[in-house]
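Database export, one record per block. Field names are fixed; values are copied verbatim from the stored entry.
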Amino acid sequence: MDIAALNSTKTLRKHVLKWMCICFGFLSLVFAGFNLSVNNLHLVGGLEVGFSLLCLYIFKHSQKHYPKRWHAIIMCLAISLIVLCGTYLAPLKNGLFLWTFILPILYYLLIGRRYGLILSSALLVLQLMVLSQKLPHSSFSAFNIGLNLLFVYISIWAISHVFEGNRADFSKRLKNLALLDPLTGAGNRLSMNHYFEVELRDKSQLYLFLLDLDYFKQINDQYGHEVGDKVLVELATLLRVTFAKGYVFRVGGEEFSLMSNFDSPQAALAVAEKLRLAIQNKHIIANGETIKLTASIGVVQYQQQSLSELIDLADKQLYKAKETGRNEVCTDILVHG
């Protein structure tokens, strides 16, 4: 599976922002020409020219990178300012206020539910203040038009809010299905790749632990796979609690990989020993019997390797721990006293 596909929200917003820059940048230049030469709305025309330049900058940036959060926020604020100024300065017959209705959709697509709610609320209040100055106060038809515009805006806003909320929740659920082991709730191999390649920025003090439960096959054979699954679930919980500042991944049947940054090799090995002892002291009751656990652990430090190379090195240390009697922590790290 492509790791980049997990960033569906970022990809969606990148494409929306990119095409917004193309469409709105071109339209702004067209409207700027009319407003500067025909309508004599120099302030609005100047804002539209500036907005077109902003669109060009963000478009060029999004060609090579994911847009920054402030790019989307600035884009939304700039469009809102142009629409508000246009509504205030231009006659209502020009119809500039109609652009108000598209803005909640753009807010929610570009900056999410929370900021979409804030900007949509602010825009509604400000636009009502502007339109209240433009519409005749004593005219029933003006009141009727204003009421219909209000209801249309609120309807579009509500649909945008519900849609973005459901989309975000669905995206999160899909990501969890892709990245989490369904039995233990620990990360899976894809999650480990994603963390190492995408999320982990500073690897200078990174350590990887490869942990394998000793004699797990005997537990399955003696007590059954249901008890074996219970052991794995409780082990994963124990690892997450004991290894609180790191990340836990299930990479095989009874094999787990743990990653975290440590200030020194001594600190990493101390935590590995703490994990070993915690597992040794863990007793699981199944079918009226007490199951005692032990684990072998291999520890390696990141030294500019790829993830697969790092896992291979940890696997060699894990194999050494198995060969020396199990329930051991082995490492190739040189620890200076």
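Remark 1: The chain has a mean pLDDT of 88.
Remark 2: DSSP finds ten helices and seven strands in the chain.
End of record.
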